[in-house]
Amino acid sequence: MSTASIASGLWTNSPSPDTLEVTCNEQSHFILLKGRESFDLPQGHYRVEAYRGLFYTPATQEFDLRAGESRAVTLKLADWTGGASKDWISGDDHIHLTRARQDDAVFLRWLEAKTST
Questions:
Q1: Which residue pairs, CB below 8 angstroms and at least 24 apart, start in 47-50?
Q2: Within the chain, what is the greatest distance between any pair of CA atoms?
Q3: This model's pTM is above 0.90
Q4: How far apart are CA 89 and CA 56, in angstroms?
Q5: What is the pLDDT of residues 22-46, one digit of tens each?
Q6: Under 8 Å CB-to-CB from 80, ≥6 apart: which residues?
């Protein structure tokens, strides 16, 4: 797994990271840049959320993970428009992130419109 991280700035350990990690108030939030990822997590209670623009209903799953346990989590996003969203592009044209110019490629991949499901 290659991850880019934001705390006081962006750092990457790969020219093409798979995941963007945003940390705030001692909580980490991961944004999947390529659709799927795996994480090594300590035991505890977790909440996984998935979003895809304004035309899909967010999906959420909570679970408890025991020490040494592996778990696959699959979230299905439902298109609430009944297919009408295929004719529209949903998006937000701005972000509120402090970044350096060399970070632009990571953020542009994150914001890239996805044309297929």
A1: 48/73, 48/75, 49/75, 50/75, 50/77
A2: 46
A3: no
A4: 12
A5: 776 777 777 777 777 788 888 989 8
A6: 55, 56, 57
